[in-house]
Amino acid sequence: MKTEFSRKVYFLFLSLLSTATWVRGAQMYDPATSFSVTKNPNGVWSYGFSSTLGGPLILHESTNIFSGINFWLTPLPNSSQAPSVFHNPTAAPASVLTLTLAPGELALHPGPEGQFAVLRFTAPSAGPYYFVGSYSGRDHVGTSTDAYVLADGLPLLSGTVNGYGEGTGFSFDTTATLTAGGTLDFAVGFGANRDFHYDTTALSLEIFSVPEPSSYWFLLAGLLAMGCRWPAKPNVIVEETSRAEIAPASRHRLLPQDARHLADCPTSS
Q1: Rounded to two decimals, what is the model's pTM?
Q2: Of 124, 88, 92, whose CA–CA distance to 204 is shortest?
Q3: Phi and psi of 122, rounded to 5°?
Q4: CA-angle at 36, arms to 47 and 139, nearest 5°
Q5: Each residue's pLDDT tens digit, 27-51
Q6: Residue partners of 119: CB distance under 8 A and separation at least 6
Q7: Is 161 found in the same domain as 55?
Q8: End-to-end distance of the chain based on CA atoms, in angstroms?
Q9: Residues 6+ apart with CB under 8 A from 154
Q10: Fewer CB within 10 A of the end CB, N or C, for the chain?
Q11: What is the pLDDT of residue 212?
Q12: Is 264 helix (H, G, I), strand (E, B) or coil?
């Protein structure tokens, strides 16, 4: 019994340790909650644009605030403050002209000559990164853009955004393996109509670093062990025997069929 109890305590400790390792390894990155209007690059995030899809990233150097919305932008000729990456930091919907952003929402707007608005994630370490999110239109006139996810400059996912509100674009849920310093670019162009007006495109995004495989094995071993029942008091049945059968000091005996092994888990011999 003492050996089995020790094994359970050991595996419980192992499962807690492996769970802590998994949580520590699974770092989450959210560009909306960590958005900065004072730093670019901002940690793993960079705000900019590219002249061609997958081309060199040109960082925005100018910022502005319109109706409570924070903008990173490069005011190109005839661009009207585009291309840009912007964020609503308030707890209420915020509107500028014909666009409206939900509380805490991040969006991109392409440039007038086909420049792609780009939000870049730079991997802090090598490994697989799981990311989930969506693109959707945020201009009341009706957004019409082409949107992409690129891994190290190469297209990984693409789709179109047409209209206003949720469900007007496409969602993604996938994993990419990056080297340390590798990049994921989330890019928005001016679409098939080649017109950058009314093209505000919201980006919902979360990126997770995926723990090393060894963490999963430890977690699995620990969870399997936790499925074993914790030792409890013996469940025995006492049978009364007659005075004539045995001595007074031994008038109770355990029925053999009820002296069960206390643990549900297999034990080593």
Answers
A1: 0.73
A2: 88
A3: -110, 120
A4: 65
A5: 999 999 999 999 999 999 999 999 9
A6: 31, 45, 46, 47, 85, 106, 108, 185, 186, 187, 203, 205
A7: yes
A8: 13
A9: 54
A10: C
A11: 64
A12: coil
Tell me the residue type at 26: A
Q: How far apart are CA 81 and CA 77, in angstroms?
A: 9
Identity of the residue numbered 79: S
**Structure confidence at residue 79 (pLDDT):** 72
CATH classification of the domain holding 65: 2.60.120
**CA dist., res. 134 & res. 150, Å (int):** 14
Category of 22 on φ-ψ map: left (φ > 0), alpha (ψ -120 to 50) or beta: alpha
Pair (80, 144) in one structural domain: yes
From CA 266, how far away is CA 137, in angstroms rounded?
57
Residue 269 within a domain? no
Rounded Cα distance between 56 and 166, Å, is 31
Token look-up 């945020």 returns 138
| E strands present in the chain | 28-29, 45-50, 58-59, 62-66, 69-73, 84-87, 94-96, 99-101, 106-109, 116-122, 127-137, 143-151, 154-163, 171-178, 183-189, 201-209, 238-240, 252-254
Chain length of the chain: 269
Whole-angstrom Cα Rg for the chain: 30
**Burial class for 188, CB neighbours closer than 10 Å (0-12, 13-18, 19+):** buried
Residue 264, domain member (yes or no): no
Show the low-confidence residues of the chain (pLDDT under 70): 1-25, 212-269
Q: In this predicted model, what pLDDT tens digit does every residue of 224-238 receive, in sequence order?
A: 555 544 444 444 333
CA angle, corner 198, sides to 170 and 47, nearest 5? 70
- Chain centroid, CA 252 distance in Å: 62
